[in-house]
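Hi R.,

Here are the chain sequences for the assembly we discussed:
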Amino acid sequence: MIAREAKVLLEVRGLQVAVAGVEIVKGIDLVVRAGEIHAIMGPNGSGKSTFAKALAGHPAYVVTGGGVLFEGRNLFELAPEERARAGLFLGFQYPVEVPGVGNSAFLRLAYNTVQATRGKDELDPLEFDDFVRGKMKLLDMDPGFLDRSVNDGFSGGEKKRNEILQMALLEPRLAILDETDSGLDIDALRVVASGVNRLFTPDNAMVLVTHYQRLLNYIVPDYVHVMEGGRIIKTGDKALALELESRGYDWVMEEYRARVAA
Amino acid sequence: MGEEEAAGMSTAVAAKHPYVEALLKGCTELPHSPLSWLDGRRAAALERANALTIPTTREEEWRFTDITPLTRIPFRPGRSAPRLTERDIARFETPEAAIRLTFVDGVFSPELSATAGLPYGVLVKNLAAGLETHCVPVEPHLARHAAFERDVFAALNTCYLRDGALVIIARNQDCPTPVHLLFVAAQKEIASYPRCLVIAEAGSRCTLIEDYVALGEDAYFSDPVTEIVLGDGARVTHVKLQREARSAFHIATCAVALGKDAEYASHTVTLGARISRYNLSVVQQGEGARARIDGLALVSGRQLADTHSFMDHARPAGKCVQLHKCIIGDAAHAVFNGRIVVRPGAQLTDAAQESRNLLLSGTAHVDTKPQLEIFADDVRCSHGATVGQLEQEQMFYLRSRGLSEARAHNLLIYAFGAEIIDRIPVPSLVAQLGRTVLEQAQTAA
Amino acid sequence: MSAVLEHLVNQPYKHGFVTPVEADTAPKGLNEDVIRLISGKKKEPQWLLEFRLKAYRHWLTMQQPHWANVRHAEIDFQDIIYYSAPIPKKKLASMDEVDPELLRTFEKLGVPMHERAQLAGVAVDVIFDSVSVATTYKQKLAEVGILFCSMSEAVRDHPDLVLRHLGTVVPYTDNFYAALNSAVFTDGSFCFIPRGVKCPMELSTYFRINTQESGQFERTLIVAEEGASVSYLEGCTAPKFDTNQLHAAVVELIALDDAEIKYSTVQNWYAGDEQGVGGVYNFVTKRGLCKGASSRISWTQVETGSAITWKYPSCVLLGDNSSGEFYSVALTNNRQQADTGTKMVHIGRNTRSRIISKGISAGRSNNSYRGLVRIGPKAENARNYSQCDSMLIGSHSGANTFPYIQVANHTARVEHEATTSKIGEDQLFYFAQRGIGAEEAVSMIINGFCRDVFQQLPMEFAVEATKLLGLKLEGSVG
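And here is the predicted structure of the full complex:
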């Protein structure tokens, strides 16, 4: 199913990350190729979100060891906005509210900035309006979103849809979706998942960070990784997610401890 | 301060202000307490009372509240109270509150009090008796929260501190019924200095009703001070009813200290007094504490009702929701000053304050000053104030449904007050106060 | 004029000065002799000297106010020079001699090339003939009967107009600094729009170039007669490195029936360094009187400079159906302190007022909104709406809101709202993750926050004001 010769988009080697002086991610190795969907699962506090934020370059997350290549470039030499322009997208677990800044102006600026980096044409406000409305239709979003401030007063579901809309606009090479399913009811989950599936192509890749497997009923991963204590302790396929759902995480941890002890 | 050495009221009355001096006459005659720390605090308060003057409208804190009418009457401290019977106070009884302490002109009245069958872990006693048995838990708190350094009325109360109400709810205990603290004014020209101390230990719960009532219509002066301490996770609901005589003066202070994750709800209803002032200060001493501060002032005639509240978010993650409403008729005057401070480091504070005012007549007036002082950036704070008369649109809507103009008018006033009253968790009070608002609405119509 | 006064004024100086008549600079300190010197130097009529002396004598009885939420060392009023004849600044030969910091600021703000030199004090005769431009404007204004000149010229050429209006909106008894200004003001501007005339241009472009040296005790008077209208912009977005510590200006606006005055300020005085050393104390009294029915006064201010700002541009709504507006952006950074807001005093019937205030606090600064809305007993159907928002940047600054609402008429409707928001690491990271850099993100957030105020500014100043705020916040975010 997966072409082994597909291009490597992301290569993580021994990554360690600290937050406020405490090491949270303690050595992660991960390779993501074009055309792959990876799911990172694990209990709360296992370091999943820290891993995602560190890749996107949040200033509070300090890389203390290891390295990451993104399409062959050293990711950590890039500022957060350069990573975004290079095609790395993070869908936030808790998107911030920015009162006063219109959503449409924000989306257009983000879109045009990324387009300019790719040497493509920027859109003027009218062209952009048509363009974005088309994308919103795909995601079943009310055009009224455009007139509101960025995430301001949005419900949890509206914020997540706004994230997916941004992903649709920016067409990233690699999208990391951090707990995109949390706080969504089943209808919203279906809409978001179908949006993600539609955006998935053989040229890009997705990393889904999630606590529950229910998202994986809609988006089928090629790999499922279990994180615990800042490390990936087990990797499997879709079946692993189902097993986690029925048996919980404890057995994976015990298996891991036994392996380490051996 | 060296208060422990200052045994007794060694300080003499030598007040800077003649009226303060007159009010202080008699406080040095109070017997010494066997507790030297208590005498020390009283002496310190006397020292401050001597130094302070009666505030005037030139002071920012009293800019809109002129209390010269108070100073025209030579109030004297109540030494003995007339004997009252249950019948005299029957109309003030709250059926839900099985526990009651009654004070007549500031003097504790055991025969009108009911403290039988208190559950385990709940102490409700008059303060003088409580000091004999519970000196250890009281000492760190009594006269420690209500600052009297710059407040002449809190200082006066503290000078006279001898008796009052003491409520202690032990750790994790739940006081099953509301505690009714009833302060009855019976004689004219008496100054009374009620004192309450409420200690809700960690994890405990209780509901207090602090209630000021009068038997007659004569002028008198109430100068109460209440201190409420909430331990970690404690929950206290505090209903304060000010239904003094319409010619009385009421200047009250309440200081509340909130421990970690404590929850305090204040429901203040101001109906009586010629001039009233309520200083409520709530200090968030522990993370994650929450306060709801509700207020309703319903005044008419030439009444003046002044509420000054201060919410001090000294620690992170506190929450405060304040709604203060005034319904002002005739030539009455309402004053509101609500101050919310978010100290440096008190991140994640969530504070919302609203001041809503309804003017019912051409001569009524209101001065409102909501204040926010914010020194932390990761916070959510808002305040709002409105002043107006009844919404013409709403009036029209009700009339278009067949209500007479008068009924529509009364109903809207009632609804304005009901938002506050309905949140009081004592059904008989909700019913009683609802009637009062409706009556007032009718007279204003 | 009383004979005694006349005698006093006209006799040669006996006290204090070595060469009084020729003196271009008064000695430090303030007394009646200094005031006579100022008045004499300016060849003022006797009534103005009396006005000054009355103000001075009243000032002596007053105390420095301490109620504002600002802290500063006691000002020594005897350590200030109150009169100094304008000395032409040393002209720089070329732009190469200009402070590079200043050039960088011009660049960032997008100040037009020909103005940069002018503002930097480079001789600009070749590039830009300011005299001829000024003359063109003046001619154009004079054609429609508008008087627009310095206060000194107005006193000389239109004494009756000045006498009729000066001090009628801000009496010298008003407050400590207004009294001081009334005693010692040296110049300022005067603008008179006759009945029915709509001023054909923003009185801003002209101003930006020409009146940068009006001194520390500025006095401005604008009168719009029945049906007249004018829009006036003072100040400049470029920084003014002024050595005067204390600025105490007075601005009076008078609008008669159906007249409209729009007064905009962009203030960017020297704010002191990061440690709060130096910087201007900007203690200003600005007040407009809506004297006539249906008159309208609107204040717009963008306050970014000064170590301390203490100003409350106000409207007294005397005429029935008159309206007052106040739009303000106040930004403080480092150790700056601002206590600013407005007063809307509703006296007439059906009067309206609107207050939109946006405070931005960064660094270790303290920013307070203080506003009064007073509805008098006769102000039937008065309406006020106030919105006061604060934005905090970093966790060491303070934002305070002190609205005073006093209502004595039950037909009034007053609404006040206030909220807080912030620019934090998380907001910036969110923008960055979408490819938008920090500078652009800050500008976008600030612009969104201040939108309601910037809309009130003339277009080109709105653009500059946005850039100015971004510039002032450089390095304090993220």
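The CA atoms of residues 87 and 170 of chain B lie 33 Å apart. Chains B and A do not touch (no CB pair under 8 Å).

Let me know if anything looks off.

Best,
T.
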